[in-house]
Amino acid sequence: MAMAGRFRSSVPRVVNSLMSDSLSAHRSAVERSLICPNFTDSQESSFLQQSRNLSSASPPKEPKIKVPVAMFGGSGNYASALYIAAAKAKTLDKVESELLDLVAASEKSPTFSQFMKDLAVPADTRVKAITEICDQAKFSEVTKNFLVVLADNGRLRHVDTIAKRFSDLTMAHRGEIKAIVTTVIPLPAEEEKELKDTLQEILGKGKTVKLEQKIDPSILGGLVVEFSQKVFDMSIKTRAKQMERFLRDPINFDA
């Protein structure tokens, strides 16, 4: 928590300072080579493949690292490449925590959030800002290098989605299954434990349930449980719709 607080406090200052710099300033070739390899938008697809190849490269007899869950789409590809690099460096938990810190900082700082979304900001300025922020927050090299690539290619605006996909991968790696329970009001601790225990019995050994509560007054009452690509809808809203359909169906008295 202390690191997250220090990280959030440094973000606005770094961004404001860099945004006031001359936007036409260029990094030296040495600085560029130290931060990340040459990378242009036209090379983006090849970078993802190269990241997988480089991060999964291992000494002889060392098993190849694979993602525990297949991911698709741009965010999924980035998350998968980051997972392989972090697993290779044995920093999965640290990288996950750092990404979540960054997302939390963007949610609490309008200036930083706008900075990450604004494609008008030159790539050099984005890279310099992210580099300084990562250095001040003492982020790992894996996280820093990854964020630099996102900054260099205008993909920082997708970091929240990438972070979620990365968390899905780390949870799968730990044998955790996320279950989302939606209710009108928060479940009492006793009922939450009972639900968690029930889901744990369904999943069996080898898996751990991570319960996440979601509040949605529109369901009117009851609950909706989502886990392992299954949905158990026991909400009053759904029951009311089912009853409405039943009452609207014509009655065949000749049957």
UniProtKB/TrEMBL annotation:
Is Ribosomal protein among this UniProt entry's keywords?
no
Q: Which Pfam families match?
A: OSCP (PF00213)
InterPro entries assigned: ATP_synth_OSCP/delta_N_sf, ATPase_OSCP/d_CS, ATPase_OSCP/dsu
Protein's cellular compartments = Membrane
Going by the UniProt record, its keywords in alphabetical order are: ATP synthesis, Hydrogen ion transport, Ion transport, Membrane, Transport
Q: Name one GO cellular component term.
A: membrane
Question: Per its UniProt entry, which superkingdom is the organism in?
Answer: Eukaryota
List the PANTHER family: ATP SYNTHASE DELTA CHAIN
- Subunit-structure text: F-type ATPases have 2 components, CF(1) - the catalytic core - and CF(0) - the membrane proton channel. CF(1) has five subunits: alpha(3), beta(3), gamma(1), delta(1), epsilon(1). CF(0) has three main subunits: a, b and c.
UniProt family annotation: Belongs to the ATPase delta chain family.
What is the protein's given name? ATP synthase subunit O, mitochondrial
Upper lineage? Eukaryota, Viridiplantae, Streptophyta, Embryophyta, Tracheophyta
